[in-house]
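Researcher: Please translate sequence to structure tokens.
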Amino acid sequence: SGVNNTVNGITLNSMENAQIHNCELSGSGVKGIRVTYSGEIILSKCMVYNSGSYGIHLDHTNKATIYDTSTVDNLYGLYAYYLNNLYLSNSTLSNNSVDGIYSDVSNGQIVQCMIKGNGDDGVEYVKSVFNLTRCNIIGNMDYGVDNNGDPSNVNGAYCWWGDTSGPYHSIANP
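Model: Translation complete:
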């Protein structure tokens, strides 16, 4: 089903368990999908694009499983704030004006995702811990992954960074 031109395309607040499958959201004024103060959320096979701010916004939520989903041409593709456990897989976060994924005080796993062509960072972490595995993190304007100076919170095993030498770093991997 499709949702177009609303303030928030889908909003879930204080839900113990919820599932969203096979959706298309475009032109939401602020957030395509907004989940706050909730338990376990499963989101699959959705396309969220051209939202005013966030494609997917997860705030104070215990667990989110997202797979086979795309967030394209938003300000932020996925914004996680106080998210206890994210499992994101087989998804595309591309051409968002700022970050593909922005995470603040959250943790989880990102597996086999395409994170490309975002206007700032592919993934930006603040006080967060994530494992990235088998992702393509390419063509983002600033950093593929910006850990805000904390080297202990990034694991990018088996990711493709657009070059056989790995992710670009002006000193460690020029």
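Researcher: Any highlights?
Model: The chain has a mean pLDDT of 90.
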